[in-house]
Amino acid sequence: MRSRFLTRAISLPALCALLVLSGCALAPGMKFDASTGIGMSAALPPVAEITPALARREAQEYAGAAAMAPLDALIGEASPYRIGPADVLSVIVWDHPELVVPNLTYDVGATAGSPPAVIGAASMNVPGYVVAHDGTIQFPYARDLKVAGLTEGEARALLARRLAPYIHDPQISLRVVGYRSRKVYVGGEVRLPGIQPVTDVPMTLANALHGAGGALNGGDLSHVELVRAGRRYLIDVPHLADRGLDASRILLGDSDEVRVPPATDYTVQVMGEVEKPGAVPLRSDGRLTLAQALGRTTPSQVTSDPQQIYLVRPGSGSQPTRLYHLDALSPQGLAAAQLFPLQPDDIVYVDVAGVVRWNRVISQLVGGTTAASSLERMARGN
């Protein structure tokens, strides 16, 4: 009898101590504790309660940060096309067919000005002169004519002055028929990735994306990357209108690179007591609220604690790590979750209900699925 009493006396305090210690154990029943940090010398930042007012403030800050992205260098007015090396020029001096060289013909229909495989065999041949790497063309009586950097009108006037000593009032038609000196590269999640020539039609971001067939379903137009001269710009195309802009005002230049990233590059992590934990991509417009992330991952109705939902926003640069708490059982909490904007790399954690954690700890201590009844029998001394 005394032995059984001592067993009960020792066992129950030991079990209670283990249950208390289990609050900071990683398993079973991992619990989010925002008051301490394992292995951290400095205390974690305070936990902010997610309310409708806070959610609206966060949404305004997020929109304001996007509006402050430095895009001024990309905005400009279109200017006339200027001839460059490798361009193909069509030059016709009216009433002087002898100045047309018949074997200098280029297919401008299928190859955008590239020489055809067989001279004269192209379906759409025009007399043409390729601008040399030094920016010149060779034309009868004009010798080496420097045309690189000139517009069509300026090159036509220059040629007319060169021919004036030989031809009275020369009437000249000069135009670019093959645009090969400037190009942009469009890649990533688009239907037709590849090189697009810059022509006399201004090459804007809208034209480049349209020329590539638009973004695929898995493309993220809210994080379009533009690389120019080693500098990287991030463009939120769907929300350019929020700052009074549109993609047709963003001019592209020679060797610009445009990339539409996959939506999976920008995700939030949802962990804890949810049925589908893991990475959740942002929507196609680059937005995702806390309620939408929880809706996609489905918190467990059996094991989760809707009053203990936490959000960790990792710090970057001078920005510190932020911690948030949501009580999804309150009407205000539900309204706030629908408004609260998530950002890429955010971590959402749905905590486990207290009774479930209790049962998990006891199950490991006594084994089996009848933890509660086993504990009860031990307390009675059976």
Automatic annotation (TrEMBL):
One of its GO terms (cellular component) is cell outer membrane. Residues 1-27 form the signal peptide. Residues 182-260, 268-350 form the SLBB domain. GO terms for biological process: monoatomic ion transport. The keyword Membrane applies. It is a multi-pass membrane protein. Its main location: membrane. It holds the Pfam family SLBB_2. It is found in: Cell outer membrane. GO terms for molecular function: polysaccharide transmembrane transporter activity; porin activity. This is Polysaccharide export outer membrane protein. It comes from Paraburkholderia sartisoli.
